Amino acid sequence: MLLTISTTVSPATDLGLLLHKHPDRLQSFDLSFGRSVVFYPEATIDRCTAALAVEIDAVDRSEQRREHGQDAAYVSDRPYVAGSYLSTALARVFSTAMSGRCAEQPALAATAIPLEIVVTPVACRSRLTAEAVFGPLGWTVEDEALPLDTAFPMWDAPQGKNEVYRRLRLKGAMRLSDALRHLYILLPVLDGAKHYRFSDDEADKLLRFGDGWLERHPARAVIVRRFLKSHRPLVEAVEEALAESEGEGGEETAIIAADDEAAVVTANSEAGLERPLRLQEVRLRTVLDTLARAGARRVADFGCGEGNLVAAILADRRFDGVVGIEPSPVALARAARRLGWERMSGLERNRVSLIQGAATYPDTRLAGCDAAALVEVVEHIAPWRLDLLEDTVFGMMQPRLVLMTTPNRERNATFPTLAEGALRHRDHRFEWTRAEFRTWCEGVAKRRGYGFEWFPIGDDLEGFGPPTQGALFTKVDCDPL
Fold it and tell me: In whole angstroms, what is the distance from residue 337 CA to residue 307 CA?
């Protein structure tokens, strides 16, 4: 089985730092069931690819299973399918990368980078598809059926047709540690089998490597059941733990019934609606470039959540620093883990702070920030509290720059799964049209001594506008840098 990980981040050879495997070396690792080899088919400044090949001793595997009273043929698909064997190899070979640690590039390890992952072959033994499990996590999924020698009918492939064994290609902007954790959990889920004796620590593995994404996955129940092989006490314990985590984070999740794999679909949530537009990636890039062009140096990120924008600003040397402000202590803890706070050098820690707070409460700790960012925040605030936000951000803090983004309600009509009149997220208190947002911005600018520029984010459809709209406020009495 073969796994390749490619990136075009600049310089692309930093992939070797993130994986802790030097591009100029071929490295071999002994495993209990065979061996794995890491090598780099390409390693240039523009594109770098790391490959993990796993070779299993089929005869030794068969003999070991027979010693345990289990029947196992010498010729089967088990030594070749990317399932639990590959997951075990990932944990053995890339354990530090999966933890998100990188002493040489801590900011890069905490940043979403362009990734392309190819896994060959993957076995899909149920109606659960690769799109259903990887798609909601932000991946663009391509998979194709692989030809199979019809001399081996026991491999579940009738003559002339093979839909079980597939080549899987994933593309997206993702933290490398998150990508590896997705593979670790979901490849065995697709395969539906494990090569080792099942034990109670499987639940700990699922919670540890699923932290931060599994609790909000629309196919969570199916993933938990298949990973834990329907072991009811463990399934119930994990579901209880995930439900508590979900409640703390406040995210909406559509959980599919565990016995209905045919019904697995992308959740009708804000992330699910926006994923085909790659809106999160476009929005983040637009915010960074807009702030940088305006000369922002130290940014206060209100409603920072789990730290997407904080990590991106920290990794961008156009900025001196960033302060993440978030009312949820759980989200702040996750942001700290994402940034690798405990492993940061003193120099890096001087560039970032995470504090509990909100845009509706004044905070003297924000002194020194010349820019404030409220990215998809204002729509979560009750309309009657918008005056408090205005007083805090534009009245008391008075940064030179304020950047805001918010959904454009007019665009909701183009989302086929969104009910008429519905908002994109259950926690949205309202969503503005383009005219309504401009009117509010004009009022704030006039009252507080700011000028503002409205701008679209995402493709601008005639009659509907962009999916997200933004505004950059500039203090009138401040000279641009």
Answer: 9
Identify the burial level of 327 via C-beta atoms within 10 angstroms of its C-beta, where 0-12 means exposed, 13-18 middle and 19 or more buried.
middle
Residue type, 354: L
Backbone angles phi, psi at 80, to 5 degrees: -120, -15
* Tokens coding 180: 């590896």
pLDDT in the model for residue 77:
65
Question: How many whole angstroms separate alpha carbon 186 and alpha carbon 194?
Answer: 12
Q: Which helix (H) or strand (E) holds 402?
A: strand 401-407
Tell me the C-alpha distance between 248 and 447, whole Å: 37
H-type helices in 340-412, by residue range? Answer: 346-349, 386-389
- Burial class of 52 by CB neighbour count within 10 A (0 to 12, 13 to 18, 19+): buried
Q: Tell me the per-residue pLDDT of 106-163, one tens digit each, with 9 for 90 and over.
A: 889 988 899 999 998 888 766 778 888 898 888 999 988 877 654 344 444 444 445 6
Identify any residues that bridge with 29 across adjacent strands, giving them in sequence order. 36
Which amino acid appears at position 149 of this protein?
D
Angle between helices 232-249 and 201-209 (to 10 degrees): 20
With contact defined as beta carbons under 8 Å apart, do 403 and 373 qualify?
yes
Any idea of the CA torsion for 22, 28, 31, 33, to the nearest 10 degrees? 130
Which string of DSSP letters, residue by residue, matches 402-443?
A: EEEEEE-GGGGGG-TTSPTT--SSTT-S----HHHHHHHHHH
pLDDT, residue 50, reads 96
Cβ proximity of 412 and 431 under 8 Å: yes
Contacts for 424 with CB less than 8 Å, ≥ 6 apart: 269, 270, 273, 274, 407, 412, 415, 418, 431
Listed in sequence order, the DSSP H helices in 110-253 are: 130-134, 176-191, 201-209, 220-227, 232-249
Q: Judging by DSSP bridges, how do beta strands 352-356 and 321-326 pair with one another?
A: parallel
CB-CB contact of 322 with 299 (8 Å): yes
What local confidence, expressed as pLDDT, does residue 353 receive?
A: 92
Q: Which residues of 414-450 are buried (b: 16+ CB within 10 A; e: fewer)?
A: ebeebeeeebbbeebebbbebeebeebbeebbeebeb
Q: How far apart are CA 61 and CA 447, in angstroms?
A: 74
Q: Tell me if the pTM is above 0.70.
A: no
- What would the two tokens of residue 4 be? 């390749």
Give SS3 for 124: coil
The CA distance from 304 to 323, in Å, is: 9
C-beta separation of 313 from 301 below 8 A: yes
What CA–CA distance (Å, rounded) separates 92 from 50? Answer: 16
